[in-house]
Fold this protein.
Amino acid sequence: MKRVMLVVAYDGSACYGWQLQPGRRTVESELNQALSGLLKEEIQVTGASRTDSGVHALCNVAVFDTASRIPGEKFSYALNQRLPEDIRIQSSREVAPDFHPRHCDSRKTYEYRILNREFPLPTKRLYAYFTYTPLDVEKMKRAAEFLVGEHDFASFCSASSSASTTVRRIYELTVEKEGDEIIIRVCGNGFLYNMVRIIAGTLMEAGSGRRQPEEMAEILTAKNRCAAGPTAPACGLTLVRYEFL
Amino acid sequence: MKRVMLVVAYDGSACYGWQLQPGRRTVESELNQALSGLLKEEIQVTGASRTDSGVHALCNVAVFDTASRIPGEKFSYALNQRLPEDIRIQSSREVAPDFHPRHCDSRKTYEYRILNREFPLPTKRLYAYFTYTPLDVEKMKRAAEFLVGEHDFASFCSASSSASTTVRRIYELTVEKEGDEIIIRVCGNGFLYNMVRIIAGTLMEAGSGRRQPEEMAEILTAKNRCAAGPTAPACGLTLVRYEFL
């Protein structure tokens, strides 16, 4: 037996997220099906980030165990022949048999894209959240600074989370304007349920003037989901980088 | 009666191109339907560029005549409520009653995007053509230079074209690398049927080493479609700019 790691890119638009759900198409179900078909054994992958319905990824990570003699690095080619076109393996390799992608230190980077102009652009609609409300990027930057570092992010966590602690470390949180898109980029050692989307929704409130950037400190202190802004829609979110430390 | 001009953006992935076709969903059919529903009169738009199935646009142009008293600039808001999400009006205004978008001098700019890396990225698949064959951007640039200016582009025109002359002027033709994407940007006073896609297909052959950049001169001289490279797939092509002179 050996353990193989896959780096997986997907367009989340037509998937009910990563995780297996009875009767629904998910990234995990598609990977299990493609692997089981290829290897003629029942394969069940373990994912690193269980992204929500509609969220995209350039580099999510999955591992599986197999008795196959196919070399680890060949799986990307073989699987891409069998996967639907909205899921593509970016690389594959053999890893240590005890490697578990959720039980090791990592840095993940997410991007949240906002299209901020008078009218939507159809070619961006699947990968950016559209709003015509003018957003002040400088105010969003100032608000973002309050969240960098180690904090209790309970206010930025959906009530349905079962995390044992709500303390997380954000290494970097930037807000940039590229043409008519605003890109929020956040790198951390882990994220609570909906954390990046709640951060994005709250930063947008700072950008629109609904909140002062300085309020971010109070929101953190409140440790209450109701203190933060809305959960921004899934389509704007993409997992762009995953590093194991 | 007045004539109204619409600037229209669309994702061509799910449309059979611009032009009306019996029983098929096209950009023109969707615009006619939305306008006729809004105005309670039979409306038939006239388009500037009749883009092919799968081709995208940020700014195609259409005009229509109406007896409505709705001010020209209000149509964008009213139509966007009625159009499907892959088509969005970017602006609207009243124009001279004899303005015809195909019978006046214009400069159009198209972008052709190529994703050039080992594996496809699902989130780019609808808006860029993927190839894993390494392309040399410097060679593509050198090949592109031969096409700038006024030339007989008969070699870069699909056989099914009914154009009266195959002479066109290319003002600018650039090739740029942005990360793992190569962007061919071409600005001209008009384009023959499939011309930009044949230029893209031929420049890719120069980039892969199948052809020398210098062969572009011979291809122009041949005035024969068989002399040029293949028609690159539609998904990579987007009409990005339209200027009336």
Notes: The interface with chain B takes residues 9-11, 56, 58, 76, 80, 85-91, 118-123, 125-127, 238 of chain A (CB under 8 Å).
